[in-house]
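Problem: given the chain below (235 residues), write out its structure.
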Amino acid sequence: MSERFAGQVVLVTGGTGALGRAVSAEFLGEGARVFVTYQHQRELDSLRDEAGAIASRLEGQAIDVTDHAAVTQLVTDIIATHGRLDVAVNCIGGYAAGWKLWETKPEIMEQMLALNLRSGYAVMKSVVPAMLKQGRGAIVNVAAKAAFDHAASAAAYAASKSAALAMIDSLAADLKDTNIRANSILPSIIDTEANRRAMPNADFSKWPKPREIARVILFLASDDAKVIRGAAVPV
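Solution.
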């Protein structure tokens, strides 16, 4: 494996989840120091066990990524400790569907907006000033194909993902004349244990694997993609 990110510091919010875990492992494997946010200590412990000899380059903190103050403090601490933040990948997200718009409870809409939009806003609001100060950086936000493929009975989910995509597109325009890039990826149904349990009769072979998506994210974060800004990449 290459060392494209040797010496770099990478923040992966939601870095112990089904997709985030694969993203964190790939960055670690390519030489980065990786800082993850997580919900449960066992998730971080498991990721450390998987990392083995390179687990010394893995750090983590349990925070609510929709809490602006908490995320800002986290980024401040990372910069204070390591002197840099080269890459930020936001893997926080959630899915809820199965109701027509007029049947969707307000709390479901709020949950989707919090997980799929506000988390990304809090992350970008915190990391961009730090990256501007250091004069470099790469940002990747995980949205979904639902951002433009708006299925029935999924209004809250589709709306939140569409808004997240628009937010990153606008951010990329804001960063046009800087050395900071922002892009989105748009997964379809990811091959995870939870999705297999939810759809036991589906053809799992057609679903993208977390590691395959992670490799696309690493490409977008690398110097190989330095001319790509404001892209929305379906995976």
